[in-house]
Design brief:
It is a single chain. The protein has a 7-stranded mixed β-sheet with strand order 1-2-3-4-5-6-7. Strands 8-9-10-11-12 form a 5-stranded mixed β-sheet. The protein is globular, with a radius of gyration of 20 Å. α5 (about 210-220) runs antiparallel to α6 (about 240-255) and α6 (about 240-255) packs antiparallel against α7 (about 260-270). The chain has a single domain (about 30-285), classed as Metallo-beta-lactamase, Chain A, CATH 3.60.15.10. The chain contains 8 helices and 12 strands. It has helices at about 5-25, 75-85, 120-130, 150-155, 210-220, 240-255, 260-270, 275-285, and strands at about 30-35, 40-45, 55-60, 65-70, 90-95, 115, 145, 155-160, 165-170, 175-185, 190-195, 225-230. α2 (about 75-85) links the parallel β4 (about 65-70) and β5 (about 90-95). By secondary structure, the protein is of the alpha/beta class. The structure holds zinc ion.
Length: about 290
Amino acid sequence: MRPDRLSSLFVSVVLALIYFQCADAADMKGTVTVLKYEKVTVHSYMAPADGLFVTSQILETPNQIVIVDAQYTRPYAMEVLDYVRGLNKSVSRIYVSHSHPDHWNGLSAFAGYPIYTLPEIKAEISARAGRGQADSAAANPAADVREISADVLSSGKEVIDGVRFEFEKVSAAEGSVHLLIRLPEISTLVAQDLVYNNVHLYAGQNEFDHWLSVVSELKSRNSDATILTGHGKPVDRSGYDRMIAYLEDLRQFRVTSKNGEELKQKLLEKYPAYNGSRLIDISLPRLYPPAK
Ligand SMILES: [Zn+2]
């Protein structure tokens, strides 16, 4: 084939690929925020409203992919998986940050991949799945989840594909146990549900004081410029201040509201631009249990 014919064929193939990627992106219901660093590219996937704005963090290292959290519904988990396949690198780990179903109910989409979490979180997922909270495609997705090794937990760090990951356990905040992940080389904290961004909180754990102290402590470390949140887009350090303000309001409104509806109204009035009011609805039965 003549060189000019060859180059026009090459251009056609490239244009076809670009079109395919655009078409794919247009079909996607979630949104992806991409943050590029020298050794790592962060692709933060956020589900739309019916997926509770839950995020999956896709951390692209030089040769591999690490994913944090598996989405609430299978269709959005499949969107994450399709996006990851488009990056054309092998998935070395999927971490589950805590036991709330919006972060693992979609695990069935990732069957066959290496899934890891803390032993306490694995036990909680098994218990929740046993109560029928998993989707029908996976009666107990925790059965395939591996526990992060004692070695990694005691040292708190692991090098994956040349990138340093740090791990920490945090108790009694948004949920009962959280896996916190840091990537110190890119000053990034994978906070997941310890920090939300522009989304109402799930408050059913009712641990406002301790959650506040956790966020204040994370802020005081002065170590992370970027926070990857569990609901909402990535945020800079101002995200800590907005979380603290919201948690303080929530703690006060919980005491000063006579019922859940009043608490919800106060939150909607104070934070009119926030998404995810359904998360307040889900919290209320636990904050104001019906009288027996
Ligand atoms: Zn969540």
